[in-house]
């Protein structure tokens, strides 16, 4: 399966709303960066290129309108979706004059409508989405001739931390035989997780500490 992730900037000062949106979007192949004020949003937009930008208007330090009006060059042609209150219709119309506004949604945000607006803004359809829940995560103990014992990481570790996965691996492996080495076989769906390489490195670090071995004693087999 060809896999592509889409980078999203979410500028929203309400942490509860932001957590809900992030959790929903990162169920699919969206990588979300979150900021809580317009100034932090402008800084992110100067440094990183995004595929789509989600903006609350009423933010500290700089409003969503001001951010659109002063959009950094790196993201000047990227679609913006306004997340707005019902009494801000005039602001939305003003933002639309910039040409960057792809859509707007009234709060409270309907998640299905948000996904539809994002797909339209990116000019893709639902077949471009990868639903990580379709690839449930599990760990299987296996052995390979020439490698010894190891584990296979099956599916996408959506919602799991490195600490939790390392604990589950150690539960599956139990005690290591001599020589104290093992391998970790990683299936393609593992890479669907945000920052999968960093997550895998963190898992290895925790396993090294758990078993008191060196990183060279853990062989990573990537089946992508």
From TrEMBL:
<feature type="modified residue" description="4-aspartylphosphate">
    <location>
        <position position="56"/>
    </location>
</feature>
<keyword id="KW-0597">Phosphoprotein</keyword>
<dbReference type="Pfam" id="PF00072">
    <property type="entry name" value="Response_reg"/>
</dbReference>
<keyword id="KW-0902">Two-component regulatory system</keyword>
<dbReference type="InterPro" id="IPR039420">
    <property type="entry name" value="WalR-like"/>
</dbReference>
<protein>
    <submittedName>
        <fullName>Response regulator receiver domain protein</fullName>
    </submittedName>
</protein>
<dbReference type="GO" id="GO:0005829">
    <property type="term" value="C:cytosol"/>
</dbReference>
<dbReference type="GO" id="GO:0006355">
    <property type="term" value="P:regulation of DNA-templated transcription"/>
</dbReference>
<dbReference type="GO" id="GO:0000976">
    <property type="term" value="F:transcription cis-regulatory region binding"/>
</dbReference>
<keyword id="KW-0238">DNA-binding</keyword>
<dbReference type="GO" id="GO:0000156">
    <property type="term" value="F:phosphorelay response regulator activity"/>
</dbReference>
<dbReference type="InterPro" id="IPR001789">
    <property type="entry name" value="Sig_transdc_resp-reg_receiver"/>
</dbReference>
<feature type="domain" description="Response regulatory">
    <location>
        <begin position="7"/>
        <end position="122"/>
    </location>
</feature>
<dbReference type="InterPro" id="IPR011006">
    <property type="entry name" value="CheY-like_superfamily"/>
</dbReference>
<keyword id="KW-0804">Transcription</keyword>
<dbReference type="GO" id="GO:0032993">
    <property type="term" value="C:protein-DNA complex"/>
</dbReference>
<keyword id="KW-0805">Transcription regulation</keyword>
């Amino acid at each position: 399966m060809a896999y592509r992730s889409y980078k999203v900037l979410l500028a929203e000062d309400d942490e509860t709303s932001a957590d809900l949106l992030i959790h929903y979007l990162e169920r699919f192949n969206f990588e979300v960066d979150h900021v809580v004020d317009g100034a932090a949003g402008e800084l992110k937009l100067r440094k990183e290129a995004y595929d789509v930008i989600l903006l609350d208007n009423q933010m500290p330090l700089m409003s969503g309108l001001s951010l659109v009006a002063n959009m950094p060059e790196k993201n000047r042609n990227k679609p913006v979706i306004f997340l707005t209150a019902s009494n801000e219709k005039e602001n939305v119309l003003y933002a639309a004059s910039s040409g960057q506004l792809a859509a707007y949604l009234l709060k409270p945000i309907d998640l299905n409508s948000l996904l539809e607006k994002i797909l339209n803004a990116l000019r893709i359809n639902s077949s471009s989405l990868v639903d990580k829940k379709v690839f449930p995560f599990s760990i299987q103990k296996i052995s390979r001739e020439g490698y010894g014992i190891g584990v296979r990481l099956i599916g996408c570790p959506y919602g799991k931390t490195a600490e939790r996965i390392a604990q589950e691996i150690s539960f599956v492996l139990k005690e290591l035989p001599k020589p104290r080495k093992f391998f970790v076989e990683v299936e393609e769906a593992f890479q669907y997780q945000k920052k999968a390489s960093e997550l895998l490195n963190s898992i290895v670090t925790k396993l090294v500490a758990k078993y008191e071995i060196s990183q060279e004693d853990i062989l990573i087999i990537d089946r992508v």
